[in-house]
Design a protein that fits this description.
This protein has helices spanning 21-25, 43-50, 52-61, 71-100, 148-152, 156-181, 208-213, 231-246, 263-269, 278-285, 295-305, 314-328, and strands at residues 3-4, 14-15, 28-30, 38-40, 108-110, 113-114, 128-132, 135-142, 193-196, 202-206, 216-223, 259-262. The chain is an alpha+beta fold. The chain has two domains: 3-75, no CATH class; 92-325, 3-Layer(aba) Sandwich (Restriction Endonuclease). The strands form four sheets. It has a five-stranded mixed β-sheet with strand order 5-7-8-11-12. A three-stranded antiparallel β-sheet has the order 6-9-10. Helix 6 (156-181) packs across helix 8 (231-246). The longest helix has 30 residues, at 71-100.
Amino acid sequence: MEEFQTSTPTKHPIFAPYDFTPFRRHPLVYNSDGKQVVTCIDPAFLAEKISTGAYHTILRSLEVEESVRTKADESDRKRFLRRYWGEVFQIYVNDRLRDVFPLEAGQFYTSPKWDSPKAKSNEEAFDGVLALGDSLVVMEDKGKYLEFSAKYSGRREALLKDLHERFGVGVQQLANSLEIVFNNDPSQDRHTFSERDKAKQSLLRFNLEDAKRVKKVYPVLIVQDFSLETGFANRELRKLFEHEIKSRRVDQELVRPLSLLTVEDLETVIPYLSKIPLTDILEEYIKPHEPLYTFEHILNAYIQRKRISRRGNDWIEQRFEELRLSITDWFTVID
């Protein structure tokens, strides 16, 4: 196994055949010394630069050499990593779901807060909740990315360790919140939650009677890192959630296995939600599948069996077309 270290220090040696960093950082390259014309090496790298590249660009802009770093510099970087980017990602996810489930339908709760005076006044119960009959889909959104060298070192242990460290907290949050809502200890109170407006007035409330009607709960972790789309990551975080929920005072028959979705998976499934309940799709996803099967692969096989025609995401396609038109003048297509 050939290994090397990049110019940027990494936690683990990188396995050379996995490293496409130069192409990802610079998807456009000059094709002459005159630097008048550029070539796009691969459109996928350019698309990634436009999307996930924004995260890394902002993060690098907040990096200051240790010799001149101040507490304010470190504070800005921590706030970005721990709060700001995650909030933006959560808003995006909830906005896309709100397009399908308007507030007046009374099904989707955006960033609901605990109602109980015992809970913190502004603490979120979940990042999003979807109520579908006697089923409840509870969501946590994580805009984090796996550490670079953990992904490309070729070492399973390094990958698993980083996966658990960065995304295990979302799994724990889901388990903790489910115990608060569905605690089966008679000596403990259950707590309700509600979506609120900017004045903190309740817009949509999930009360104790609503909780009693729930027969199945589907925990979902939505992530931004597209490298987690494989069944491997889904299996590992599902195992972690199973361990966590078993230690909670919750009826184990109530809670279904965890589903890990990337934001691309969510964007793909949204056009079908007017025809197929999300819970039906999640039930298919949690069945035993080949370890490397992605959510999209499983979804495509499912809709094919159901004889449902393929659907595109109009919102995404419109934004992509706007982006394409905005950069078309930069390129000359050569057959």
